[in-house]
Every structure is written in structure tokens, then in C-alpha cells.
Amino acid sequence: MPTRPSAKVLFFNAFLLSYETAKERRCVYRTSFACLLCRSCIFSLRSLLLIATSKNMNEEAAIDAFLAGEVFAVAGASIQRHKYGNKCLRCYMQNDRRVYPINPSESEVEGLKAYANLASLPESVHGLSVITPPEVTEQIVEQAHALGIKHIWLQPGAESPAAISFCQENKLNLIAGGACLLVVLGYREL
């Protein structure tokens, strides 16, 4: 499993964000490392580092809880290998995870029996990865909640404000707007 960003990486990213902020404010020190000496830049840097660390820790805990399960489903699994729904499915398979493809138009995806919807799965799943258009995502998260699926990962591009709000209101473990499963599990194009 890939390692999480170190404190050094977080600090450097926060510094870059602070530096960009300083440039926008027309900070007199914007052309060198002296920017770190500027009181307002130091405050910005500390604030950004705290925010980055906090978000990273919350997301890391959500990812760990998501991946702690044994059975997963991929809503939006595609037979087209260049599509992210297919890559996500293959990523689970590459990492020896039990996974079910959800695709109402196909009978099989990557050699696995495909299911038309979450309700037709042969067993309950711990986590659901969603790679669908945002308007479809909203319906899928509601179905997932109704079936008792508590861990949902909205892959980049599948997010919608309504789906995110629904998950938060129903206290589901939600990963959205950040990490991609392919990066976290280490997808390899074979």
C-alpha cells in the first residue's frame, strides 16, 4: 500500500500555498525564502499546515475504515478498459479484494458477473466505490444507504453536492473531493 504524505511533504505543500498567497497579497518578500520571515506569511503557513494536516488525518482515517472491509462494489464498472470504472474494478482485483461490478447494461465486466444494481448483489458489501455521472451518484448513494452500506468512496468526477450532503446527513463514512482509489491502492496498467 502506498505511504501517506510525510510531515515534510505537507509542510512543503503548505509553504507553496503560503508563498502563492503572499504573491497575491503583493508581499514585499515574495521573491525569496525571506517570505518565511514575514509575520503574516508565517501565520498563513501555520494555518495552512494545520488545515492540511487535519484534512489529511480525517481522510486517512476514512480511507482506513473503508479499506478495512472484505467485500466491495464498483458502481459504474465499465467494459471499456480505458474508463476509470474499469480501472477501479481492476485495482481492487490487483489488490486481491473481493469486488462486484455494478453495471445495468452488461452481464460481465473483466470476467466477473455484473449486477444491475446494488440490491441484486449476492451478499452485502462493506464499501462502495462510485464512478458515475453526478446525477446518477445521487441515486446510488441513496440505494447504498437503504441497503446498509456505510462506506462510500466517490471517485473524482462522481461527486455532487447533493450526494455529499446526503452521505453527511446520514453519517456515512464518505471519501470525496480528494483521494482516488487508484492512487491509494496503487493501480498498475497491465
Q: Overall mean pLDDT score?
A: 81
How many angstroms separate the termini? Answer: 18 Å
Number of helices: 6
Fraction of residues in helix? 40-55%
> What is the CA-based Rg, rounded?
20 Å
Report the major sheet. Answer: 5 strands, parallel
Percent range for β-strand residues: 5-15%
Task: Enumerate the strands of the largest sheet in spatial order, edge to edge or round the barrel.
Answer: 2-1-5-6-7
Quick one: overall form?
Answer: globular
Question: pLDDT below 50 for ≥5 consecutive residues: which ranges?
Answer: 21-55
Please count the beta strands (DSSP E, at least 2 residues each): 7
Structural class: alpha/beta
H/E element order: HHEHEEEEHEHEH
Note the main attributes of this structure.
190 residues; alpha/beta; five-stranded parallel sheet; 7 strands; 45% helix; globular
